[in-house]
Amino acid sequence: MMKFVLKNVKNGYRAGVISELGNQPDKTVDTPFCMLYTRGGSAPHLSRDVLNRLKNLPLVAHMPLNILADHHEAVRKFQHGIGKFAAMEDRVVYCSLHDPSTLVKSGYNDKHGVSVWGKGGKLKLDTELFMKIQESFQPDIYQALSDGDTDINSTRKRCIKVVDRTLSFLDSILDIHNKSERLKKTAIFGSIVGGYNEAERVRCVKETVSRPVQGFVIEGFFNPGPDTEHFQINECVNLLQKIIEILPVDKPRLMQSIWPPDAVIQAYELGIDIFDSSYPYVVTERSSALVFTYIIPTEETEGEELPETYEINLTDKKYFADFSPLLKDCKCYTCENYTRSYVNHLLNTKELLASILLMIHNFHHYFEFFESLRRSISDGKLEDLKKLINKPKKLPSVER
Ligand SMILES: [Zn+2]
């Protein structure tokens, strides 16, 4: 069964190793890390061999349930689980309830189940259907069914309701899980919900911790969807701190939709271990390339100018004749072979290759950022990384 061991790191930072993962018992993952975002079982825009050329590719493939759920009968017939079905058998599969980049509409959950939004529209999951899908998918880790439909405006009554429901779902799930042959090697992450109500959050943590779960997903501060990019952790920082204080230190905590690098570092410092990588996809979809700096300057590079924004938008006409790479010194395939001008041309002529090239760069950039985050933690240089990251914030203005 999945194991999580904290490492001894300078300055008291939190870093750990996850091991003995379901179908990949010989592999380990260092925390903090981001998972490899997938849609419908594959990385967006990238074929398998293009994907496998990326450096620092996360071992954990993140497969949101909402998009895959429609195919669960086919996966059941296949018998070998969603990892093999999606040709990702060399990765650890984590199955979340929602897709962080797809809007989850509010008001569609009740005591019988939770609605997820896939390609075919709304799908209502009760615990029985949810567990049938998990038994077909046989992921290495899955998030327990939960009602995270709360935000800063939710009433106390609503917060009580979501905690009641989520705990009752968890008990039904554990019942089925513990009897299941197919899920013997699979770990469950319990969902911590309760909106902005401290008493309900504390109740949810205490009850969830007392049940046999191997990790925790913290949600219910906002509805997942593209707008979560603008969510400020400061809105919930005290409550999040309180939640993490009473969670056991020796189990990993996951939070989806914590996207820009400053938010990632802030959440990490509060005690979050696992993040998602749908942000590079969202950035790609708006024709942009990530350009924030994560390389701590050496004496040689000290004083070099930092970019003013986290990303640049390649549809801007100023890139029409810009023959530099998307990002100077970037070692990704796109930057080593193509120019801003070429990507600008591909975008103007609506060529699909534009999304492929941007996705390669944005994934590469985000994965390297997490590598840099882990390195700065083990070298005791997190403060230096923060100084770099916390400078540029705004989205670029675009001239077409
Ligand atoms: Zn690049």
Structure summarized in a few sentences:
This protein is of the alpha/beta class and 400 residues long. It folds into two domains: 3-283, TIM Barrel; 287-389, no CATH class. The chain has helices spanning 48-52, 65-68, 72-78, 81-85, 127-137, 156-179, 198-209, 237-246, 261-270, 279-285, 333-337, 340-348, 353-378, 382-389; strands at residues 3-6, 16-19, 29-31, 33-34, 36-37, 60-64, 92-96, 114-118, 121-125, 141-143, 187-192, 215-218, 253-254, 274-275, 288-290, 311-313.
Strand and helix layout:
Layout: E1 3-6, E2 16-19, E3 29-31, E4 33-34, E5 36-37, H1 48-52, E6 60-64, H2 65-68, H3 72-78, H4 81-85, E7 92-96, E8 114-118, E9 121-125, H5 127-137, E10 141-143, H6 156-179, E11 187-192, H7 198-209, E12 215-218, H8 237-246, E13 253-254, H9 261-270, E14 274-275, H10 279-285, E15 288-290, E16 311-313, H11 333-337, H12 340-348, H13 353-378, H14 382-389
Parallel strand pairs: 4-14, 5-6, 6-7, 7-10, 10-11, 11-12, 12-13
Antiparallel strand pairs: 1-2, 2-3, 8-9, 15-16
The protein binds zinc ion (ZN).
Describe the structure.
This protein has 14 helices and 16 strands. The chain has 400 residues and is of the alpha/beta class. The chain has 2 domains: 3-283, Queuine tRNA-ribosyltransferase-like (TIM Barrel, Alpha-Beta Barrel), CATH 3.20.20; 287-389, no CATH class. The protein has a 7-stranded parallel sheet with strand order 5-6-7-10-11-12-13. Helix 6 (156-179) packs parallel to helix 7 (198-209). It is globular. The structure holds zinc ion. Residues 326-327, 330, 332, 334-335, 361, 364 line the site of zinc ion. One of its GO terms (molecular function) is tRNA-guanosine(34) queuine transglycosylase activity. One of its GO terms (cellular component) is cytoplasm. Belongs to the queuine tRNA-ribosyltransferase family. QTRT2 subfamily.
